[in-house]
Write a structure and sequence with these properties.
The structure is a homotetramer. By secondary structure, the first copy, chain A, is an all-alpha fold. In chain A, 76% of the residues lie in helices and 0% in strands. Chain A binds a DNA duplex through helix 1 and helix 3.
Chain lengths: 207, 207, 207, 207
DNA sequence: TATGAATGAGTCTTCATTCAT
DNA sequence: CATGAATGAAGACTCATTCAT
């Protein structure tokens, strides 16, 4: 019984993930999930409060990890270990992110591209906003620790930098870039970021 | 009659734009458009085939312009006038885009953020894909015209560069950045792009 | 067309009234109303916002009249024309109420006995509460105009008197008492009320 | 086991009473009862046939007492001890009722206000009907024992008198009138009833 | 006795679209 | 060109109850 239940629950989750992935949250129906799980629609409600709950159940572990990573980032900033404009820390972070992506592709796909109509419809934007805050704090710290740098970068630019990060992840997910390729491509991005931001931080005496 | 018809049509379009902007394509109902246009729902179908058609009618002029711009870009490429890694052409292009954005905010908003459920739901991605093609061609040309440059940049990176362009536009629209601010911020982006891509194109002898 | 619509609307209202009367608001389904009106369920929603609206549409004219009567009563009180413990005013009021009941039987039935689950589920209680307020004001006025009367009657008693009024109406409706019988019976109630309340208002020197 | 069983049963009853009191019969779900009793829904069905049975189990002791009181009343009537229009018997009865109410508030609340959807939905009306029968018999007896009284009171009036009794109880329950207040207020009601009915029974030579 | 699991009939409601006039 | 009217397919969700174990 206990076993059976777990199986059914797992089966629902599996089917739901498939359906959500195929049609997106909004266009997936409880009926279809039920039918493809070979149970009744109402039985789903014995396992999950509602459609939103079912979706979140699938997606929340990954969501939590992202949130925790953000919190960690905030703490790191406070400790003064800044990666903006620093090659090695950026590289390290890239590796971490790549690993995370590689092990959470399915969920990230749901979160980024299939959540319209759900409670996390705006997850990416919210993430970018929060990430922007972190970046802005980093800049403030840099201002004091390395006063010769130009840190007068607009919040909008930073926002776009964060957006870029998020969107690279999105592209990786969308085009299902392999782990190897991610690592390969990351070099390009690193170079691009490093020289781009470096130039920016002293761009007053350039060009 | 002819006049009347035109007025009604215009009225529908105006109302529809408002509704789509407020609620998005999916959540906008034909009824609400009709009611706020002071006509009957069914009469809308005398002017527009269906909801999707109505939406496209609003959005297609801007869509066409974007497409034409892309086509123009393709031709320019063929002529060898490359802006990748060139400061002034990039700057010129920025100015053009900024002007375009400033005069097409409403439509771009609809296209980028309110089109879920419509046929152009994936417009941004498609745009990026096509833009990527153009970029890749540019690279090929560069390869022959300036053989000393490193043009072995991955298609994925280019794709992301295009994505970045598109997403900057998206951010501008989303946060309703003023014309003045666009111009101001563009300097940052230019510097970032220029030095980022420059470094990349000869990154084999760096770091 | 206009005619047709009116007919359908009327037909829905007629059927709905029948169903509500038979099964009560809660247990009446939109389906059954639709089926018995020979239209589709969804078509009802072209005429009425929802089930509650449909119910209120039937019942609100009568509801309004009751509310207006209460307002009128409040004004009368202010003018000092008190019927508590006065035979003729009580009698006049009875006649008025009897006439009202006789012409609003169906609606009163719905309001009093069939409204469970609707927004006017507690109408009778609310009515009694409000009526009690009016009575209490009457008492206060009496206190000053006829100081030799005992007006120290508990609010709870007044509340019950109002409840009695309301419940007599309810009984009349429930047992479908004819106009003639109402008039006949009213004499009994008048006597009962008159002597009951009279005794009460000087009951300190009694028994 | 036996002990355990009793405990479980008691626990279900206790929870159910709470739920019914809070939400009413109709809106209380077996699930919520089970959950709050820390057992499974289906286990409830080992103790009670269905939702209705569960409700009745809670409410029937009080229901029986009321029924027995009614039966007692019928016998009393037969013995000629009539309280209609008699001060002291009425008073005695009041006291009895007050005591009963005070010790059965919870159940009376359920019976009178929370039974919609259950089999005793119309308990009050049925009670009134039966009580009316008793009153009518009283009247008949009075007619022979005290022929000088006017006993030509309409059944409808008597019905309303019974309704009044029942509704006073309802009001007491609804507004949770304290024992002390009940006793205090009862004087008003007694006076009101006594003089009201007295006048009625000889109202032919009045006014 | 207790439980886990499942069910099916039913609820209100939404909306784009069609069609006759 | 305009309208009134109607529709059908679909949607999420609820809950008392049953049954095998």
């Amino acid at each position: 019984m206990q076993v059976k239940k777990r199986e059914v629950r797992a089966s629902i989750l599996k089917t739901a993930r498939k359906e959500f992935t195929t049609f997106g949250f909004q266009k997936t129906t409880m009926r279809s999930i039920a039918k493809k799980s070979a149970i009744t629609t109402s039985n789903i409600y014995n396992y999950f409060k509602d459609k939103g709950d079912l979706f979140m159940e699938i997606v929340s572990p990954t969501l939590s990890k992202i949130m925790m990573a953000l919190e960690k980032l905030e703490d790191v900033d406070a400790s003064g270990d800044i990666n903006l404009g620093n090659y090695q820390p950026m590289k390290d972070q890239f590796i971490e992110v790549i690993n995370f992506i590689d092990t959470h592709r399915q969920d990230l796909n749901l979160i980024l591209f299939k959540s319209y109509g759900s409670s996390i419809q705006n997850f990416k934007e919210n993430f970018i906003d929060r990430y922007t805050e972190i970046f802005m704090k980093q800049l403030k710290i840099l201002k004091s620790t390395r006063p010769n740098l130009n840190t007068e970068i607009s919040r909008f630019f930073i926002h776009n930098l964060c957006s870029l990060y998020a969107n690279i992840v999105a592209e990786v997910i969308m085009h299902n870039i392999s782990f190897e390729n991610m690592n390969e491509y990351s070099k390009e991005f690193l170079t691009f970021f490093y020289y781009g931001t470096s130039a920016l931080m002293r761009y007053d005496d350039k060009i």
